[in-house]
Amino acid sequence: MQYSGGMFAHARIILAEDSNVFTSMIGKRLKELFDIDVEICRNFEDLQLSYDKSTDPITLAISNINLPGAENGEALEYLVDLSIPTIVFTGTFQEGMRDKLMAKDVVDYILKDNVFAVDLLAESICRFLTNHRHHVLIVDDSPTARALLSSRLKRYNFRVSTADSGAKALEILKANRDIGLMITDYNMPDIDGFELTRRIRASIGSHELRIIGVSSSSNRLLSARFLKAGGNDFMLRPFIDEEFYCRVNQNLDTLLQIQSMRKERAVA
């Protein structure tokens, strides 16, 4: 990803970590990439004081699961209870830990188990801080499915609109040309996902809008039909949060690359 320190000038980031090695590495890396001075909290008391000392909202927290004074995960619970978006940076990852973290609606989790851990953390931070520029449309006739996808995307800081039908989706797209990604169910009563995609592709190309189809069907040929209708990707429910977020990122990255290339050609 491309980084620009200027765009993060007003971000307030808290780092709850007691390791001198990692606080030094992370602080230096984020300063180099984003020109952000991270607030370091080496124990639970520091974290509480950091929150209490300023009325400025915390944009994002990076937290170890266990801190001095909070050896049983109290620091993470504290951040979650305050509704502070949090990326977990931990070397502890026992069986069942992943499900517990996802249940807390953390933004992401990064393992301290390889030399690229700090770079992976920096990428996750950058995505969170820039995801608000992306407007995503969710199309599904199921209120539960819409709410679930909307919650997932808002957790990652995306702007989200929803439609309960294909007809409503067409209205929203017409009124909001900044939408860059649509995630649509296949099985809908008025206009199914295939027909919706065909109609959209009559006027909006993949260089303007990426389309991901989703379905609970066991028919794996649906993906081929959807792609041939003009879709860019397809996922079968139930899907894993990490895979879903990865596929969303890949499609948006591709969109930005295509748009950048078109601009370069226009200038040339």
Automatic annotation (TrEMBL):
One record GO biological process: phosphorelay signal transduction system
Domain Response regulatory: 12-127, 135-252
PANTHER family in the cross-refs: RESPONSE REGULATORY DOMAIN-CONTAINING PROTEIN, STRESS RESPONSE REGULATOR PROTEIN 1
Top-rank taxon, per record: Bacteria
Modified residues (4-aspartylphosphate): 185
Pfam families: Response_reg
Name of the featured protein: Response regulator receiver protein
Keywords carried by this UniProt record: Phosphoprotein, Transcription, Transcription regulation
